[in-house]
Amino acid sequence: MKLPFAATLAGVLFSLFALSAGAQGWPAKPVRIVVAYPPGGGIDVLGRQLADKLTPVWGQPVVVENKPGANTIVATDAVAKSAADGHTILLTTDATFSINPHLYARLPYDAQRDFAPVTMLVLLQQLLVAHPSLPANSVAELVALAKAKPGAINYASYGSGSQPHLAGEMLKNKAGIDLVHVPYKGISLAVPAVMAGEVQLTFAGIATSMPQLKAGRIKALAIGGAARSPLLPQVPTFTELGYPEVETHAWFGLFVPAGSPREAVARIQQDTKRILDEPDFRQKQLVEKGYEVVGSASQDFVMYLRQDSESRGRAVRISGAKAE
Q1: Residues 109 and 182 in one domain
Q2: Cis preceding linkage at 27, omega within 30
Q3: Which domain holds residue 280?
Q4: Residues 67-108: pLDDT tens digits?
Q5: Residue 133 sits in a domain of what CATH number?
Q6: Which is nearest to 88 in space by CA: 135, 126, 31, 136?
Q7: Whole-angstrom Cα distance, residue 151 to residue 65?
Q8: Which residue of 25, 35, 245, 311 has the fewest C-beta atoms within 10 A of its own C-beta?
Q9: Tens of pLDDT along 196-239?
């Protein structure tokens, strides 16, 4: 039965009132930031820094809860099943929403339906790094060497479908070369493997790589992104070298369960952006560690996620990666 316009309008107004009322006085209790990774890593550190700064702003304790496991699925599923009241926030990376939906045949949640994107906090690009003994000091020399010796050069990742794996397979595909993929069991093992000469190449973040680059234990051949890093201006981008499809980026972002009050989502986005824009915090805690500060509006994050998921889906298909 078709409802009269007055009844329809009344229903809309009631829904808007209920939504507004649900966010009145937010936050009304402690806020949890659920980090999809173990303590101690870059994303965990940033989450704890934000929690410390948001606690006095929100007048409620903001606590960090680490829920690592299953390539971020454990934390993501827990947040998907939590109350949609704005008091539970997921802090995770592109693996959760851009890669996993293409990597796993089934997930215990719907990445698009069950979450509301709040903001991308930071973007970070990875370097292609090599052992100093590798007789190639540029991507062009690496490609020439790989073509001369197919299958003789290997690269490390931290698992099938991980960012280094996808980047390595895209480089192989676009350059027409044969590199051997060597998966390790953790993100912290790849760079040491290159330093030890177990493998010749890997993709790693600037913060992880910088001390080893300065010590001469590894060398950088290229970096992802549209522009060179101000921390390593001598290192060219894959884009300028003719390989724009080789995407090495990762991002950290905040999400809440779908249906969370819009006012709470807006408050979380605005308050975290203000922290990211604090000059001292921005420079010392983010820029100097190789992060590109974003603090995107929620609607901009939604649009970015669609594009990122499409490009990562292509990379997964080309790589042939499967969930382990």
Answers
A1: no
A2: yes
A3: 29-124+250-319
A4: 999 999 999 999 999 999 999 999 999 999 999 999 999 999
A5: 3.40.190.10
A6: 31
A7: 43
A8: 25
A9: 999 999 999 998 899 999 999 999 999 999 999 999 999 999 99
